[in-house]
Amino acid sequence: MGSRGEGAQRAVRVPEGVDPEVPQGGRKRPFGGLAARRAALLTPPHPRRAASGGRTPLAARGPRRSGLRPRLYRGRMPYFDAASAAPLHPVARQALLAALDEGWADPARLHREGRRARLLLDAAREAAAETVGCRPDELVFTPSGTHAVHSGVSGALAGRRRVGDRLVVSAVEHSSVLHAGEAHAAAGGTVTEVPVGRTGAVDPETFAAELRGPDGGAGAGAAGSGVALACLQSANHEVGTEQPVAEVAEACRAAGVPLLVDAAQSLGWGPVPGGWSLLAASAHKWGGPAGVGFLAVRKGVRFAPQGPSDERESGRAPGFENLPAVVAAAASLRAVRAEAAAEGARLRALVDRIRARVPELVPDVEVVGDPVRRLPHLVTFSCLYVDGETLLSELDREGFSVSSGSSCTSSTLTPSHVLRAMGVLSEGNVRVSLPAGTTEADVDRFLAVLPGVVSGVRDRLGTGAPVPDGGEDLVVDALGKRCPLPVIELAKVIGTVRVGGTVTVLADDEAARLDIPAWCEMRAQEYVGATPSPRGGHAYVVRRLS
Amino acid sequence: MGSRGEGAQRAVRVPEGVDPEVPQGGRKRPFGGLAARRAALLTPPHPRRAASGGRTPLAARGPRRSGLRPRLYRGRMPYFDAASAAPLHPVARQALLAALDEGWADPARLHREGRRARLLLDAAREAAAETVGCRPDELVFTPSGTHAVHSGVSGALAGRRRVGDRLVVSAVEHSSVLHAGEAHAAAGGTVTEVPVGRTGAVDPETFAAELRGPDGGAGAGAAGSGVALACLQSANHEVGTEQPVAEVAEACRAAGVPLLVDAAQSLGWGPVPGGWSLLAASAHKWGGPAGVGFLAVRKGVRFAPQGPSDERESGRAPGFENLPAVVAAAASLRAVRAEAAAEGARLRALVDRIRARVPELVPDVEVVGDPVRRLPHLVTFSCLYVDGETLLSELDREGFSVSSGSSCTSSTLTPSHVLRAMGVLSEGNVRVSLPAGTTEADVDRFLAVLPGVVSGVRDRLGTGAPVPDGGEDLVVDALGKRCPLPVIELAKVIGTVRVGGTVTVLADDEAARLDIPAWCEMRAQEYVGATPSPRGGHAYVVRRLS
């Protein structure tokens, strides 16, 4: 399967000399250009000034001079992509700065700088373990959440090689889990993806059945099923739906299968329900620095680290410890947790407002994900007849930074694997994830701006007025046309056939497979099915019901 | 083989409540305790103060209040372990702080924060590539130098699987290279270690012969030799000896074998001579932050990244980019390079002074490594009849932070693999590596303190006065005694046998294998050889010559 995760969104190529701060056609503000700042960032200052700790041109342009700072930061303009990365929490920044002074040395050394680093590392591990809910010696720091997942999956699979080679994962895991699964399959292992319902959650019973093996066998012993490891995220990164971790953990316990929980999206909001065997997380999701992940492996879980051996982090995460970042990660997790209940409730209400208002304000929208069992800060919706990349770019021009799982914003030109697994509309997809501190006014402004942005995109794509109805069955050739054009073509002509008649859309864009059925559901038309088309792609048949 | 690298020094276990800043028996300075600081580091401040950017207790204890800062930093007390990790360069600190503001977002995203991060990442890559001497699209950022080596070795071996499965490395590579070799061997591959001479350098001809294969075959084509990859460090991390990279690169070119150069220790001092195919480096060695390595792979080198796939860093380094640290790493490399010629010459003279003075000031010392073809800032020597861990601890008490390759300071209880490969004395081993800014006064004070420290350790171990000579052959039972006791026992009794008579030392400490022959060479006695002893360990036979 073509899994698509956090990192897959196509990178925009900004030509040399173009300042990404300046909206197209906008005026460049004096002194504020990134080109100048990045030149300053990478140019060594005069050695004497640097040695004396003197201010460099960059330092002189630092945080205090607000006129020279990008106007986006510190909540001045709404950044709504916290699920990708959150700005550094003030506590993380302070801890990082202090640990840069205290903790730059090698914690494996015997000298005082080394011992000081070792104490900081131990203290960070204790703090992190307490927040995660495990023993300090069960937790190691990794260079990223992705590394934590890769190491956790490969180590647990190798540790239980004798039990079997089956890996069971939900279909909506983060790409790091799915990629680890692909590597396992490429090495001869078996990977089973547990499907999800329309809200994006797995059914615990379905998951449990996979643990019992294809023949339904084994029951309490794992030997019969051959399942070495199960993986389930705590909450989905694209639609926010919480997974039934406690129930699945209980099923895993009953089947004798260890459960790895990818807690990247939720750990800042609270501990993962007990019963997990391995847990992975990523600090930059909760306002910690980049470069730090956690991998916790409960005592008693068979675990055999893969790859070259290394003395550091119990042999589970090779390489010199990124100590300042580790300290900052642990400190910021504590800090965000202290604020999580209050801030979570506040953001939950803001997201509720988005979930309720968007369908009222914008026609032909599908809000996806579980409305209740969800992350507090995240909501995803899709807009019919809209090109996701244009929508993102128009929202960006209005000052709103969001993310999308639409096919046209991914490097693979396929819709997000999460939306596909859920079977929901993918065109014009928008993920809004609010960072801590988002205000009601930010959200209101978003809701004020969105309808005009969507209708502007739709107008330009020419969804047009329907033609009078009553005609014969039609075939629409949308081969070579990219999302959302096949759906737009369908919508244009459906009114021209008689009720009971069909429109057949020929399309080779991957998103059509998801979006034409989703359109039918939204418009109460009948989706008859798809057959391979002789000229490539598929023929999607839709019957007009009303 | 029991390879031992940078990270293998045994971590000291400081009991809870003991402040590592306070020498044993010393007085604890008020307010300066690490326990208080680390508590502050990891405790979230009052949310309101944090949110408003207010100063936390930690911030209030920050860099400006010098009375509360550890007295070690900013060159106040000599830190002589720069080859393990160097304090953050001021330019790195400034770049890091700026990039924390500018570059926290996901560079794969389309919104303005993402585009800004992407531009910073691209600029850092251009700067790093320029300094390394390669094209930007040939260089990726990894989470550490160890990761760069692991990925580089596994990717190059996999890319040339059809050519063969042989990996040729020098015997004195960093542990990350040797561990990658062990993993290759465990997977069925072949690893050949090229020996080094007494200075620690490989002989280019010997290296070239290994590339031609065991049968001397193949010549220009690699098919006959089956060598998939060769690895050679630019300079040794324990003794500072520069390797003949240009000559070996030429031999590799002639044999059609790609050469991976681990440039971790030298990149801050200057570019690696051309001809390499892959290059690995580590930012915290040149005053960049932890958490960043470089891996450069020349265009045309067959390379197949191993492990789960990932969209980031050309698929060669999975996980969210550690962008602020990457920017700081590139900026500080430029900065240290700008100062490298002048600072290198200055430190080279200081090291020359240590190399010349230590043998004059301290009896029974062997200074190891090449005196000329070497890193500017690093010197290693070993002291007979001295326990390395005690020596480190006494130097630490005097304020000097150094490192050691002695067996008693390693977790494996074996001497450093580098010293073993060189065949030099390992007991009482000290590595001095000077950070930029080390003063003549620092070095003079070290030279003033060292003789007393060494003789103090020797006195406590009781090297004692020799017994009158003329007696029969002797057998000394040192089984169960740890380094340096077997050599001390030998030295005590050698004078008691007649000239031409022998002393047989029974010892099971790993270091004896290295240190008894080394002692014989230093003392102009004859090392006859070793045979396995029936009670475990070996019987080392030494003939008295004078």
UniProtKB/TrEMBL annotation, chains A, B:
Its cofactor is pyridoxal 5'-phosphate. Pfam families: Aminotran_5, TusA. Keywords: Aminotransferase, Transferase. Residues 476-500 form the UPF0033 domain. InterPro entries: Aminotrans_V_dom, PyrdxlP-dep_Trfase, PyrdxlP-dep_Trfase_major, PyrdxlP-dep_Trfase_small, TusA-like, TusA-like_sf. Belongs to the class-V pyridoxal-phosphate-dependent aminotransferase family. NifS/IscS subfamily. This is Aminotransferase. It comes from Streptomyces filamentosus (Streptomyces roseosporus).
